[in-house]
Amino acid sequence: MIKLIINNHKINAEPGKTILQITQENNIEIPTLCHDERVEIFGSCGICAVEIAGSPRLFRACSTPAADGMVIFTDTERVRRNRRSVLELLLSDHTGDCVAPCVLACPAETDCQGYVKLIADGDYEGARKFIMETNPFPASIGRVCPHPCEEECRRTLVEEPVSIAALKAFAGDFTPIGFAAPPPEEEGSVAVIGGGPGGLSAAYFLRLKGHSVTVYEAMPEMGGMLRYGIPEYRLPKAILQKEIDAVERMGVNFINNKKVSLDDIKGDYDAVIIAVGAWVSSSMRCKGEELGNVIGGIDFLREPPIISGKIVAVVGGGNTAMDTCRTAVRLGAERVYNIYRRTRAEMPAEKIEIDEAEEEGVIFKFLANPLEISENSIRLRIMELGEPDKSGRRTPVETDKEETLAVDFVISAIGQKLNPGGFESIELTNWGTIIADSETFCTNVQGVFAIGDAVNDGAGIAITAIGHAKKAAEAVHGFLAGCGVSGTPQNYLAKTKKTPEDFIGEPKQNRAKMPHRCASERRGDFKEINLGFTEETAQKEATRCLGCGCADFHECKLIRYANQYDVKPEKYEGLISKKTENSPIPNVLQTPEKCILCGLCVRLCEEEIKAGVLGFVGRGFGTQVKPAGDLTPCVSCGKCAEICPTGALTAINN
Asked: Which domain holds residue 429?
């Protein structure tokens, strides 16, 4: 036996072994990209370099035989710098997407590509479970989410985005909700103030971790804005209730009809999450808005007055404004105006909501802003568009023109804000929202966290509150375990830009049209408008996904090391080698832009399989791994994909 000292630990080893072999036998991690026991040592990547005492240079652990008396260091600052440089150089010519753009666009980081693929394969239950790793309300959110994921869908470079949100609703509807029993309760109890999508999601994620959770809700039923701010025709209450009931069955304690302050409950729990939402309608700042015929949009949706036969004006251009207009139509209003200070093109509401409101008879008054409200009219200032503001939308500018409309009710739907009553010890922003850390959601009070519409930038969309909830639950879990509070690390991800030219050969397929009730029928009741996808439609639509994200992302050694060593590959920005599509290898998908030329697949095919199908083609900067000639010797074993460390070769599951 030989005697070594590795990282100040004495180790005995068999002679003739490499430093890498000995460290692996002793559970000392040294990163490798080009090494595998099945092939001869090649030492091409250099990431396994270590320091040996007494030598001015670094040594590659995979190819350096250990010698008696060696003193080896595997994780010094010099070693880490070297590994970081190796990784940065490799990543500077490594393109493709670690994660699909749709996933990056989702505020809850839902793996859209993953569940869409499961639906395409007919595994609807698997799709639902996959969604619920980040979102406990797939059927509900699938119906109401404005789907920022679809805005980033690469399918738009071919024709239209995949119907990601509708597929989420399909998965939520098609399979029964079933939760595995949560783990035994751990020490630490949590109170959640607010039973909306953020609060209920926080309870869900905390309960999965075994914590005791109680949700306090001021309203008669749980659901928050999903129940009281979204009309039945968009989100049936029965659908929402089914998903809420599933959270309660996990052992979460629900207390309704109880408005609590922080002081009321803080001493009874080990941690508190504030998720009260934003229930106060923003002011229109015009004369007469204090009159009895003026009501906030959220108040109207929660408890509408009698408006049958009346003329209604709704001020605002977002989805809440559209919900308010369309609810007024269904309640029998004689006429419904929508007043918006910009044009249709600048409206933040979804296009489908605007179009359907117009189909149902809503009259749009664009480039108009309220000046004064009386008991039977609203006076408007006519606007025109000026220069773009920070959001990119053109700024509305007043003109000297006016218009007056005869109206019975005016509904303000221009935004919502927090009612801070009961949270006097919590620091607020200048806009009246709770100051919470953007990653941990800690407030200024220890053990108190805040999420959703009540924090930082204010009212947003439900899926954002759900994203907050998951991160906050992780932070609370760490706090209760005594491990401290830490946020989710911002990991490096490889990304690429695509243009329509990248998809010239992709066959065009029309986006599935959601079947829905006609305007003349639907405007008279609150039954759900959309009729949902059939299995056939859902599977066909799901197959339109281009699979942008890397299939081997979670097993990729390159990205794991990149984040372990905190890479900054942008310092080596420059020309990217153009790697063309390779000849087809049976049962293997090739993504050549992810190849780092480690040579593992080439050597395995030659040395172990004895087929020699793959080889290095070209010279210098343009070198690629390709079939070197005839594919006949290929035995379709898929081992080239199995050994690939980066996802450049992935097995195709037939």
From this structure: 189-272+419-480
